Every structure is written in structure tokens, then in C-alpha cells.
Amino acid sequence: MNMRLLWFVAAGLSSSVGEAFAPAARLCNQNAAVTATIEISTAGYRTSASTLCVRPTKWDNIVDEDEDDPTTAFVVKPDMEYIPRNVVRQHKNFVALREISGRETTNDLYVREPNSEVFWYCGKVVRVSDVSVELCVARLWHMIEMHATNMRPIELFPSRGKLEIWIAPGDSELEVAYNRPTLKMQKMERLVEGADSVKSSLIGFQGEVYEGGIEGFRTWRTDEGLPARPEINPGGETRPPTPQEMIQLQKELNDQSADTPLPGDQ
Questions:
Q1: CA–CA separation, 113 vs 136, rounded Å?
Q2: Running DSSP on this structure, what letter comes out for residue 123?
Q3: Pairwise CA distance, residues 116 & 95, whole Å
Q4: CB neighbours of 57 closer than 8 A, spacing ≥ 6?
């Protein structure tokens, strides 16, 4: 029976963690009386899909390896599937552990498409002192990656399964925004020995949420994790920024990105 799989990707931004959109697909059989719906991702909470049926052609017999979902190459434990109960649990873990451990065991998360200089702020992780940040991020990798692709469906979703996750010190958004040359981000690895044995109750993830039309915080960095733009306000503030300050800083960074050439382009 000749069938063709068509993808329909829908993604959205929300003001609450439970209103993210997820990719979905419908498998349409031209010769059958019914249309079967197949969920292809647990990357969100509310799924939007469109039914598209086409006549089977000779092209349907060609196997395109590029269409495989790259995230299926890694086994995801049930407690790290990107579904409401897991995301809520990790948020509660984050709040509880943050109150105990504070900033010392907290790290800010940034996600980028390979070979891109744009690093998108994605949220924060926290852990108990006995768990390294490498183990923490590796254990939470799938949840972080899927949250990032839902936040930035145009920029990041096409590279799902190949995205890079970088960390910065906890609550260092202002230092990152000001391009402090002393702040160097660290690239994380997806596969870390012992990560699967880390109890989910010992780590927490709080994903970034866009509210009030905020465009989303991003920074421009080199492959070494250093600022790719000149420093702003040298020697200035180091405290966490207010929402209004973040909006202004993002505007300055965008203006700077448009006007300043990359190192080596001058």
C-alpha cells in the first residue's frame, strides 16, 4: 500500500510554560477511507497539525535519509521527555534546589545552531553540589534542546539533534549582554558517562519564557565562547539586569551587530 509521510511543523511562543506548540504530522493514505494521525514529537504541550493528502508518485519510493528525526538517535528516558508533567517537575526541582544551593550551583544556558555566532538564552539549570554541571546538562539535554527549538522554531528547530548547548555562570545575563571579555562560555557534551544514573530530583531546569512581545535574548560569541562584539559600558554594572534593562541591552546589541564587522572582516 503506497503511502506518503508529510510533515507539518507548527510552533508558537507563549506567556506560560504550558502553552508551547509542538511539531506534528499526519500520515495520509490516498487509498484508504480514513486518515491516521501520528504524533512525532513530545516537544510541547499543545499540538497543531494540518492534514495534507497527495496522490502517490514514483518519488514516494525514494528514501531520503535527511528526513530522519535526528533526535531518535539518542535514547531519552521517560522522565526527560518534553511533556507537561516532566517540565513542571523540573521547574519545581529548580525552585527548591535554587533556594538551597543559590547561585553557586546554577548555570545559565545558551543554545546555538552549529557554525552560527548567535547564542540564544534558553534558561537555567541548578544541581546539588555532588553533581557536576556536565552531568546535569547531559541528563537534561533532550528537555533543554526541545525547549529551545520550541522557543526559536525558525532559527533552531531545523538543527534539532545537532544543536550545541553552552553554559555561563548563574545570573550572568548582564555580563553577557555587556560582552565582558572575562566571561567565557563553556560548551557542553551531549554524552557524558554516568549522566543516566543521575537522579532527576538532584537537578532542575527552568526554561526561558517569552512574555509581552519580548524578542528573546541572544548574544554573539566565537567558537571559543568569547564575545564576538566589542564590550559595552566597560567596568560597569555586574548585578542581574531588570526586564527593562534587558530590553534596552538587546536593542543595543542588535544595533551593534548591524554596525560592527566581525573580527577579521575589517
A1: 21
A2: E
A3: 32
A4: none
In this structure, are residues 224 and 157 in contact, taking their beta carbons and an 8 Å threshold? no
Would you state the cell numbers that stand for residue 200, as one nine-digit string?
532527576
Count the Cβ atoms, other than its own, within 10 Å of residue 19.
Answer: 13
DSSP-based three-state secondary structure for 221: strand
Looking at residue 250, its pLDDT comes to 65
How many whole angstroms separate alpha carbon 91 and alpha carbon 93?
5
The reported pTM is 0.66
SS (H, E, C) 166-205: EEEECCCHHHHHCCCCCCCCEECCCCCCCHHHCCHHHEEE
Over residues 148-174, the pLDDT tens digits come to 999 999 999 999 999 999 999 999 999
Separate counts of helices (H) and strands (E) for the chain: 4, 11
Contact 126, 204 (CB under 8 A): yes
- For 247, phi then psi, to 5°, come to -65, -45
Alpha helical stretches, state H, the chain: 84-101, 133-151, 173-177, 243-259
Res. 264 pLDDT band, cuts 50 70 90: very low
pLDDT tens, position by position, 57-85: 444 444 444 445 555 567 899 999 999 99
Total number of residues shown for the chain: 266
Q: Rounded to an integer, what distance in angstroms lies between the CA atom of residue 114 and that of residue 125?
A: 22
- Of all residues in the chain, the percent with pLDDT exceeding 70 is 61
Measured between alpha carbons, how far is 185 from 174 in angstroms, rounded to an integer?
Answer: 14
Q: What is the pLDDT of residue 74?
A: 75
183-222 per-position pLDDT tens digit: 999 999 999 999 999 999 999 999 999 887 778 899 999 9
The amino acid sitting at 143 is: M
